[in-house]
Design a protein that fits this description.
The protein has helices at 3-13, 19-41, 62-69, 71-84, 91-117, 171-174, 179-187; strands spanning 49-51, 54-56, 125-131, 143-148, 151-157, 162-170, 188-191, 194-197, 207-215, 220-225, 230-233, 237-243, 248-251, 254-262, 267-270, 273-280, 285-288, 291-299, 304-307, 316-321, 326-329, 335-342, 347-349, 354-358, 362-366, 372-378, 383-385. By secondary structure, the chain is an alpha/beta fold. The N and C termini lie far apart (46 Å).
């Protein structure tokens, strides 16, 4: 019996949910498991991309990872079906759903990290701190794919290449090489116009390093991490960002037709410009001061906090959660059309416009022919606009 099923049955035994609620949740989980089994049977080949001369698999290998990448959407769909059959829908149910989503995200994150980090204590490690020279051919690079297993990644804008590492490297892996030579040989490569920086995920971890990187803003970034937190400062174009539990922070970054996917990581975006899709499980998303062209967010239990966003007549904003709360505060720019719907959560709108009901769960606010168009929907989260 899976841990999720045991948890639901324990909640039933403790009287925290009714028999009807447990049946609905178990049915939703059974449907989800069938979908996952079908997906796995059709995805025997592992999709790999090369980094530093080695295979790199985003947080799980594609046979497993393909399901997790669509986890938010699938959980929302199945839990939504379950909730529609539960009456009455109470505040208590909302909290149960939020707890379930948080537990799901943390469990998946821990499981994946344990799978990837087994044997990563590096008992023979030595402490290192050094600068890494610019790799030959970097001048012709336009793109960079950067990854890390443990430690941290900090990327800042600079006129020229710069790279500093500090942390621990296995003495057996290092041998007679200097830390700088070993890192250059094992963690950096250039193919065509793309710089690869990181370690393969198919063998035992040989280093736990914090990475401070300086790059010209002309370099487009692709970021992948398991547990390593990532910060990016500067007007870099972000092609994609993927994380299991490592928190992500972007300041003045440019997301153009970009994707961001996380399991339990928190994400902070400050300033910059957004044309992107976001899929999250339990981490919170906070965006402030950014210019929004198109933003689509799907999350299970994570809260979404949007503040001081610059909106235009072409702005499209679509946020969907299972139990996460959503707030939009102090928008800069006109909002022509706003839809807000929550089945069990509260909906509060303090923005100007003509209001009308949106079925029995939501509100539509119309405020003119020009302006941003916003749609928010949650099963049990609260929605606030002011």
């Amino acid at each position: 019996m899976s841990e999720a099923r045991k948890r639901i049955l324990n909640m039933l035994a403790q009287g925290k949910i009714s028999v009807e609620e447990s049946e609905e949740l178990l049915l939703a989980m059974e449907t989800d498991e069938k979908a996952k089994n079908q997906a796995e049977s059709g995805k025997k080949n592992v999709d790999t991309e090369s980094t530093s001369g080695n295979s790199f698999r985003f947080p799980f290998g594609r046979a497993f990872g393909a399901d997790l990448e669509n986890l938010a959407e699938e959980v929302q769909k199945q839990v939504g079906k379950a909730v529609r059959g539960i009456q009455p829908q109470s505040q208590e149910l909302k909290m149960k759903l939020k707890d379930l989503g948080g537990w799901l995200g943390s469990t998946v994150g821990k499981m994946v990290c344990e799978m990837q980090f087994s044997g990563s204590d590096l008992p023979d490690a030595i402490e290192v701190e050094c600068m890494i020279p610019e790799p030959q051919g970097f001048a012709g690079c336009k793109f960079a794919e950067i990854s890390n297993l443990q430690g941290s990644i900090n990327i800042r804008e600079a006129e020229t290449f710069g790279l500093k590492i500090r942390g621990r490297i296995s003495r057996a892996a290092l041998g007679d090489q200097s830390a700088s030579s070993w890192f250059s040989a094992n963690a950096i490569s250039i193919r065509g116009e793309k710089l690869f920086l990181g370690f393969e995920r198919t063998s035992a971890i040989k280093a736990i390093l914090d990475i401070d990187m300086f790059l010209p803003a002309r370099i487009d970034l692709q970021i992948r991490t398991l547990a390593a937190p990532v910060t990016v400062y500067g007007p870099f174009r972000i092609a994609s960002a993927e994380s299991v539990s490592g928190d992500l922070k972007f300041t003045h970054a440019l997301f153009e037709n970009s994707s961001l996917e996380t399991v339990s990581a928190d994400v902070i975006i400050e300033g910059g410009a957004l044309e992107m899709s976001v899929k999250m499980t339990s981490g919170d998303l906070k965006i402030s001061g950014a210019r929004v062209e198109k933003l689509t967010v799907q999350t299970v239990s994570g809260d979404v906090v949007l503040s001081d966003l610059a909106l235009s007549d072409s702005t499209s904003l679509d946020v969907s959660t299972t139990s996460g709360d959503v707030s939009l505060r102090r928008p800069n720019g006109a909002i022509a059309h706003l839809e807000a719907r929550s089945r069990t959560g509260q909906v509060q709108i303090r923005l100007p416009g003509t209001r009308q009901p949106l079925d029995k769960y939501g509100i539509i606010v119309e405020a003119g022919e020009t302006g941003a168009r916003i749609k928010t929907e949650s099963i049990s989260g609260d929605l606030l606009f002011d």
